[in-house]
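Students often ask why we bother encoding 3D structure as a string. The short answer is that it lets us treat folding as translation between two languages. Here is a chain of 227 residues written in the first language.
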Amino acid sequence: MARILAIGPHPDDVEIGMGGAVVTLLRQGHEVVLCDLSNGEPTPRGTPERRAEEAAAAARILGVSRRITLPLPNRELADTVENRRMVAEVIREIRPDLLFIPYWIDAHPDHVAASALAEAARFYSKLSKTSMRGEPHYPRQVFHFVCSHYDLHVKPTFILDISEAFEPKVQAVAAYTSQFGEGPGETHIVDDLRRVNGYWGYLIGRAYGEPFICREELGLSALDAVL
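And here it is in the second language, the structure alphabet:
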């Protein structure tokens, strides 16, 4: 079984982009750890305490036992050497086989920065002559999940069937009531997820799916998992 680290810029990004995958992977026996680069504050709605409660509730719904929140500033995420070291230390501690990070094209600067920062941290995590905590480690593969503020159509490397995990995903996203349950114009998130994930599922002949992109080539040792 694989150990997986999923990194998001803010609480709720991993849930929106790959919440179904998290549930599916956990049910398959893999280990999944979540890492939010910031606590999501300040935002127009909510408080740091409430966002923390919502993130913890969402993790419980997904079945995740560990969620890490780094002290990076919302709205000001940047791919700096200091931040690379901070994220690399998380990678060196968790020692994931697979790394899931945001797609690199987005209207939100934090999402773009998070993608670049996580990729750079993956490289930093293998450095040996360094004062960073932990032993060198290099996740063997990076997959990008889509949680974009653009209405764009990506060309996925693969689409994961999340049909049996879609409802827990929706429940986890809905746990963020300060973001999606009260404010004007935000209560449509569940309907959007049904449409978007339904579309990706349609492309693979399933009810719901989530797309993932990999910059590197993927190899198969068997075809028994191909739909």
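Translate back mentally: Residues 109-124 form the longest helix (16 residues). Keep this in mind for the problem set.
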